[in-house]
Design goal:
This protein is α+β, with helices and mostly antiparallel strands and 292 residues long. The chain has a single domain, classed as Roll (Thiol Ester Dehydrase, Chain A), CATH 3.10.129. It has 6 helices and 10 strands; from the N terminus they run H-E-H-H-E-E-E-E-E-H-H-H-E-E-E-E. It has helices at 5-9, 22-31, 44-47, 179-183, 196-201, 211-227, and strands spanning 16-20, 81-90, 98-111, 118-128, 133-143, 169-174, 234-241, 250-257, 262-269, 274-284. A 10-stranded antiparallel beta sheet has the order 1-3-4-5-2-7-10-9-8-6. The longest helix has 17 residues, at 211-227. The chain is globular. The termini are far apart. This is Dehydrogenase. One of its GO terms (molecular function) is 17-beta-hydroxysteroid dehydrogenase (NAD+) activity. Residues 162-264 form the MaoC-like domain.
Length: 292
Amino acid sequence: MAIDPEKLLRWHFPEQRHLVEPRDVMLYALAIGMGVPATDPRQLPFVYEDGLKTLPMMANVMGYRGFWLRDPGTGVDWRRVLHVQHRISLNAPLPASGEIVSRQHVSALVDKGAGKGAFIVTRREISDASGMLLAEVEQTNMLRGDGGFGGSVGAVAPLEEVPARVPDMQIDFPILPQAALLYRLCGDYNPLHADPAVAADAGFDRPILHGLCTFAMVGRAILAACADYAPERFKSFEGRFSAPLFPGETLRVEIWRGEGADIFVRARAAERDIVVFDRGRAVIAAGETLSS
């Protein structure tokens, strides 16, 4: 069944209310590798209920609608969907408990032509129970099997390249072999990240790590190196997924200091020396420093 672009652009996402609990906050932090070492006093507030803090990247799973493109009504070849670009912006620190409200819509559908696929962009606003906007999330997926329907609405936002010089800092994070199985417990149950048969059908020799897990791990590196683990200083983060990252690999994060509050970032699968995340840019509030 071919996609109906008008139907996709009008896809209805009911307003969703999401109860954030401390256990969710701690599980999310552990799933992206926080708490190593377990005695680090800067990381402990994200994985321990006494004085619990919420990672800014957790906006990605608050009010998350699941893998909605798998719904047969979309007409999308869901096995060939890839998450290619992502952006979050934070207006206020995310709560460690309490109710949040999310609203989501499709903001763009861009046809690349028959055999070339299409891009679909969704935007989600996250507010607290009083209506105060906390965060915005923009996700761009490539529909590799669904191009050629004709006509486009909206556009995919361009991203700036990282500086053409040696990074100011490099940080390596080993990824647990079971990292994808842990991260899916935060709400993203796409079988591509758990079922070897589904991964093979999509062209991979084994399940890949969730793009948003990679995104969060890179964000963690920025939070540590450029904001001293202070989530209130983390204002926005965007980037492009350029290749799959596999559980068990080492994520190598390269960081550049930009003008003013800008931080640029790129990440590689160290063992393969393959760039997996590129054109990353974060905005960190005044006072950021690059630690040694």
